[in-house]
């Protein structure tokens, strides 16, 4: 979602100069326009407004994730693309899950003007787990969010969205340890315990801990493109892109020696995305059987080798669409897709846009690229 910009329309009438009946409209309009240009240069574009809701029992680390990520998303001139504010019900201090309270700057009225609302991680209360219902004040706050506002839950705050009816008929995720309880409470919602986040367009949910960072970076990438998101990730010293479909729980294996890791083969594959890479070829490069290579690859990345390869190819295609004017057919070949149709199919499935539409939104401004 692009940053909002304000267009000011001034209706300028003739200006009386001198005595009665003497008008110099041309001179007056030029003077006004010249002055308005100088004035408009000082008015910055409006940033995308993010409101973070903190409720009692909030996890302090998770509460800080949205501001940390969104505040690092910068335009080419270094200006921030998002403004982030934190609120609580009544503007009261918030009791965290740890041994301290937090004072916030805003009350729940902040949610009424936000472009994106983030519900910071709050573990479901015994009442919520037992009945699937929320306290009246929390229900009222969630109902006050505008219908067009994007809503994001971090980790177990998906329970709040579900209890408020915001996830009915949708797919969602939450922390894997509570997915079974979620499914029992809300059978009308498809819960997926095996992903980092789920993007339904307006409503997004994420898994636990670091998955909140992944989801916020995903939103920056969705709003402003891969380059802006990657720069924000570098400032946060975070992984620039972990696809939403990656497994929540990854058994990170520390190899006894470098020869038993798949990292060298992953780097080798990244340098050959245009080539027709196969699972057998990757296993052969790693000096492993296909079965051993697949098992270790999944342990280290949370993905199968071919799914990881498909994601890397798609990421490279997005980067080329944003940063170059290469025709789509040439980008498809450079990223290892069999033809432009295959690339378009991947974009429609995972990005929701055609490559041409994605380029118009996130590509080099003012440059017409080949199709």
Automatic annotation (TrEMBL):
Domain of life of the organism encoding this protein: Bacteria
Q: Which residues form the HTH araC/xylS-type domain?
A: 263-361
The record's annotation in InterPro entries points to:
Class_I_gatase-like, DJ-1/PfpI, Homeodomain-like_sf, HTH_AraC, INH-QAR
Per its UniProt record, what PROSITE patterns does this chain match?
Answer: HTH_ARAC_FAMILY_2
Q: Which Pfam families match?
A: DJ-1_PfpI, HTH_18
Q: List UniProt keywords, sorted A-Z.
A: Transcription, Transcription regulation
* Name of the protein described by the UniProt record: Helix-turn-helix domain-containing protein
